[in-house]
Write a structure and sequence with these properties.
Strand order of the largest sheet: 1-4-5-6-7
Oligomer: single chain
Shape: elongated
Number of strands: 11
Number of helices: 6
Number of domains: 2
Largest sheet: 5 strands, antiparallel
Distance between the termini: 43 Å
Radius of gyration: 23 Å
């Protein structure tokens, strides 16, 4: 049964990767969730960490609350509620597919994992012009002005080491874009060489 308590000022402070903890929630012996004003996550004891599959372990036994928490719930399902266990499986499949496959021996099919689907998209379109930034065009009604690079790669922050091209795409077509990006068809989408609607051409995904 989970036990939650505040951490009081006269106690020895618990330092987490996200700052000083202001409360703790014990799920089981050796499995404690620490919260801070900005973030939080689980801390596992050395014994608990040793019992985990190597693919699920995190350095220092800290597991942040966004995704890594799922590794804890997956490794110790008896300490979590049914809905938490289900959410952990979904989270691992979506965001930690390599770890999930290593532990289970299962191969996730297309559609089973957000990250694997994203990788596949970029592999399939490595040599296509993929939009990295878009804005409604001020000069062309009903059109979106798009900045695209090969493979949708932005290059290093602050550097213009990748060729960029501007294209015009209709609002309706752009609204139907994939969740991983919009692929330019050079045979249908016109290059936009005139005045830009962008305040700058800094690429932003």
């Amino acid at each position: 049964m989970q036990r939650e308590r505040m951490i009081f000022p006269n106690e020895r402070p618990v330092r987490t990767p996200w700052g000083i903890a202001d409360y703790a929630r014990e799920y089981a012996e050796g499995i404690v969730f620490y919260g801070t004003p900005s973030h939080g996550g689980f801390k596992l004891s050395a014994e608990r960490l040793a019992r985990m599959h190597p693919a699920l372990r995190e350095k220092g036994g800290w597991f942040e609350e966004d995704c890594a928490w799922a590794k804890v719930a997956f490794a110790f399902p008896e300490c979590f509620a049914d809905e938490q266990r289900e959410a952990a499986i979904r989270t691992l499949k979506d965001w930690c597919p390599d770890e999930y496959e290593a532990v289970t021996g299962e191969t996730l099919a297309p559609g089973d994992s957000y990250i694997k689907d994203q990788r596949l998209f970029h592999e399939c379109h490595a040599h296509d012009w993929v939009v990295i930034s878009a804005s409604r065009s001020d000069q062309h009604s009903g059109m979106v002005e798009c900045i695209a690079t090969l493979g949708g790669k932005c290059g290093e922050w602050g550097k213009s080491d990748r060729e960029k091209r501007r294209y015009l795409v209709s609002d309706a077509e752009y609204d139907r874009r994939s969740k991983f990006g919009f692929v330019i068809d050079p045979d249908r989408h016109a290059l936009c060489d005139g005045t830009s609607s962008f305040l700058s051409e800094r690429a932003a995904s």
